[in-house]
Amino acid sequence: MRANQNIVADPQAQAIDYERYRIAAKRAEKVTAAARVLLWCVLLAGSVLFMLPLYMMVVMSLKSSQEIAASSVWSWPRHLTWENFQTVLSNPNAPFFLFFRNSAIIATLTTAGVIVSSSLVAYPFARLRFRGRDRLFILLLSTMMLPGLVVMIPTFIMYKYLHWVDTWNPLWVPAWFGGGAFNIFLMRQFMMGIPRELDEAAFIDGATHSTIFWRIVMPNSGAALATIGIFCFVYTWKDFMGPLIYLSSPDKQTLELGLRTYQTLHNEEWHLLMAGSVLIMIPLIVMFLLGQRYFVKGIVMSGIK
């Protein structure tokens, strides 16, 4: 009789346990939904906070000087003034297109050098086994802790003895000799995720390390290469300190240095300065939008989360 009673009572107990589980699952789902909403609110607030300077820059670039003085910098312009961009583009004292060409040449050469050199250095750290590899890699990463200001004066003296001052060489030639510790680290982390079976199959077919590098590793590292390219191009395009130190001729200046020259000529004309800033920023936005998919993929697959 007791066994029969337990058998009869079991379905009721199971129903009670199921109901408790269902209630707990609903509570957990509500908590998860509330946490997700809170996270989205925090991210949205952070995005708005970071977008405010950009919004202010665009708004001021579309206003006249009189409207900027009479209204708030946050208010949308009553009358869009596109003449600000035309004035910046046609100023003979600060030729925008000349500065644009100089920045494009320097950024392109630097980006190409960083991509090639960082890949060549990262390949042995990721795919080869040799004595002292890990120690050398740690020594390489330790250079990231050295501030650039510490070596600024010795570097300038070295380039002065090479007669590279007032030339573009100090801005792009070093990129072809290493590519930077961070870029090497990023490429190494990505290359370590490529299956080694591809290398073994290539060795069986008689391939050398150079063949494996150019025909297997590099074609499969497109996301990491795009990430490094975007990082390097943006940094070089926005670099102000390097051109300020090494360039003195007006015809060799970059956009960032040219904008400083334009600020000297038009100290209080904020509508023209903001228009110039918007024009400088447009190529960076276009590049990021075109390479956003590869940029995100490279960051995720390289282990930097």
Number of domains: 2
CATH architecture of the largest domain: Orthogonal Bundle
**Strand portion:** under 5%
Distance between the termini: 62 Å
CATH class of the largest domain: Mainly Alpha
**How many alpha or pi helices?**
15
Structure description:
The chain has helices spanning 2-61, 65-70, 83-89, 96-127, 133-142, 152-161, 169-172, 181-191, 197-204, 209-217, 222-238, 241-246, 255-265, 270-290, 292-301. The relative contact order is 0.11. The protein has 305 residues and is mainly alpha-helical. It has 2 domains: 2-61; 83-301, Orthogonal Bundle (MetI-like fold), CATH 1.10.3720.10.
Tags for this entry?
305 residues, mainly alpha, MetI-like fold, 2 domains, 73% helix, disordered N terminus
Give a brief rundown of this model.
With 305 residues, this protein is mainly α. Helix content is 73%, strand content 0%.
Give the helix/strand layout.
Elements: H1 2-61, H2 65-70, H3 83-89, H4 96-127, H5 133-142, H6 152-161, H7 169-172, H8 181-191, H9 197-204, H10 209-217, H11 222-238, H12 241-246, H13 255-265, H14 270-290, H15 292-301
Helix pairs in contact: 1-14, 3-14, 4-8, 4-11, 4-13, 11-15, 13-14
